[in-house]
Amino acid sequence: MKQIAQHYKSGELSLLDVPVPSCKPGGVLVRTAFSVISPGTEIMKVSESKLSLLGKARARPDQVKKVINAVRQQGLLSTFQKVMNRLDSYTPLGYSLAGVIVELGAGVEGLYVGQAVACAGNQYALHAEYNWVPENMCAPVPSGIGLDQAAFTTIGAIALQGLRQADVRLGETACVIGLGLIGQILVRILRSTGVQVVGIDIVPDRCRAAEAAGAAICTIPGAPDFARFTREVAALTGGHGVDCVFITAGGSDNKPVELAAELARDRARVVDIGKCRIDLPWNAYYEKELEFRFSRSYGPGRYDPIYEEGGIDYPIGYVRWTERRNMECVLGLLRDGRLDFAPLITHVFPFESAVDIYERMNKGDVPGLGILFRYPETSPVVRRLVSRNISPKVAGQIRLGVIGAGNYVSSMLLPHLVRRNDVALMEVVTNTALSAANAVRKFGFARSATDSTGLMTADDIDALLIGTRHATHAELVCAALRAGKAVFVEKPLAITRESLSQIVRTIEETGNDRLMVGFNRRFSPLLSQLKQEWERRIGPHMIHYRINAGPLEKGSWYLQSSTEGSRFVGEGGHFIDTVSWWLEADPLQVTAAATVGDQDNLSAIFRYPDGSLATISYLTDGDARLPKERIEIFGEGKVACFDNFSQFVLWQNGRSMTRRARTLDKGQQGELDAFISAVKGGDRMPVNVESLLTTTAATIAVQESVAANMPISLASAGHAGAREFKAAAEVE
């Protein structure tokens, strides 16, 4: 299929040939009929991407702050690689469309194949021939409404949510500052509810369009007739001023905020819908006691992954107007004839001309507000694989398939593999079509897809690398092992006892234990050097491992513990594996406790067969400036302090020795080298499978110990996975 995207680093626009998205559970696959170009949001995005790196940094100071914190915690090289990976990527465009459902995902109710729907979301309702859209992000289009008008539904929902935030009432007067597409729709919605409207914009044609839609009077700020405008507003409001002001303008000018105070009555409401500078003039807002409110996108549910991706609706008795209900309301107004978007449609272009249209719009050569792409009516039978020329099998080469190519895989793993002559990157499978296109462009995969079914059974795949979200790991590992593949899976191997037992059973049934988990710390060159300098370990050790994990951004999928497992279950295997590697044994028991209110802010004590103890403190409420990891090892009259893979100090015999790393290397290249070598030579995997299973069981046991407030034995019935596998191996 075709999708338009922009390369964020260079600003170049491309109409790409990408795989059609797979139809995942909880959503629908939609064939796009019309999509709307947002002259404000999208053109701003296009313009921003054409800036220099310095210009991009100035435009997004919030992102610069995150980068600085990441450098302190993860080191310059690692952060640089991740940042450049994000910049050197295609980014999608679009967020409002209408089309027809061609496939239903599992669990979707109330929708059907062939149904017309309006779709929302800058991750879902993209300028592409097909889109997968979660069910809470699409609304059925009533019969009689053209899909060209229905395509404006999302933008209409933005305007409608602003109206709800203002709490406007029948008979009041509102002022709309910024008569772009959202402003024009807002004028129409306000008039349909019986509210008087006045408007302000810097473009005369937009003022005339708003007046044609029912606005009493509109003008240009600073125009000669602005005094007449203020007199008209005074006449409409009995000299009091408007009851509410909507700011739908964008830019860095503070004039809209100042105008709002000038036109508002005492104790009026000011609602920001656009993205302009907000520097409230204190005297003006204080003297009138104005109330400033924000309107967040399409309504409640926006940016909530549980609502949008999980499909969990808010009860109507508690949240009357969610984003989907706002969309349905807009469609209802269209159906009843109280809204008409037809006069707003100024251009309809074929989607094939998308690159040219964006470039012309960015230059100002395409005037107008309501600009649509029209898509060809293609067959609902879709192809989910984009093939390229495939080179024949080369002796000594490992043919690799990759499932999941997010930022970590693309910045920390694939760059090491693409440089190897003994690895052929055959196929990449991603959730989104654009992620697949990015991976193909950067790393030269022979083909890409959005469904892993074919990859599992492909004859030209020797090994798989799995780097998807945590909840999918166990199922994908089992499928790959059953297909006879060697498997490298990022941590965690599993997030529940049940899924871990499923992996154990799969290994026992297939006899395929060609499995490696991305526990990379043990392959760090600096940590390996420390172990060599310590020399032969004798007797029990006491180990303290502190991880300054820090808080996560709101909305991060790592916080979706109900589906993706807790933060420690997701990451803790790294640290347990590191300790077990140092002690050359697997833990027998864990006792853990967490602070009140945060089950991931915890400390766990592990007991080992030789009497060694390891305390792992995983801390989520510290300062992000502190480097992330520190290991202290005590035993045999020696002490070692290992600081965040940058240096270590070893004390013994009254003397200290310091070693520093040239770069912060956590062992990703080393683990991949070891995996490829084992697959090529048919040798044992770098880490025995029993240890992988025990480490995973121990990670899960930490959370159980926190919940039960008691020690958990790793040989108990609840964590029998590794023990059962060991017993089975001994029998054989």
Q: Can you offer a commentary on this structure?
A:
- The chain is an alpha/beta fold and 732 residues long.
- It has four domains: 2-152 and 317-332 and 339-374, Medium-chain alcohol dehydrogenases, catalytic domain (Quinone Oxidoreductase, Chain A, domain 1); 155-294, Rossmann fold, CATH 3.40.50.720; 397-517, Rossmann fold; 523-672 and 688-731, Dihydrodipicolinate Reductase, domain 2 (2-Layer Sandwich), CATH 3.30.360.
- The chain has 26 helices and 34 strands.
- The radius of gyration is 29 Å and the shape is elongated.
- The two termini are 51 Å apart.
Question: Which descriptors would you attach to this protein?
Answer:
seven-stranded mixed sheet; nine-stranded mixed sheet; 26 helices; alpha/beta; 732 residues; disordered C terminus; Rossmann fold; Quinone Oxidoreductase, Chain A, domain 1; 4 domains; 34 strands
CATH class call of the largest domain: Alpha Beta
How many angstroms separate the termini? 51 Å
Mean pLDDT: 90
User: Percent of residues in beta strands?
Assistant: 15-25%
In spatial order, strands of the major sheet run: 33-32-31-30-26-29-28-27-34
Looking at this structure, what is the CATH superfamily of the largest domain? Medium-chain alcohol dehydrogenases, catalytic domain
Q: Roughly how many Å is the radius of gyration?
A: 29 Å
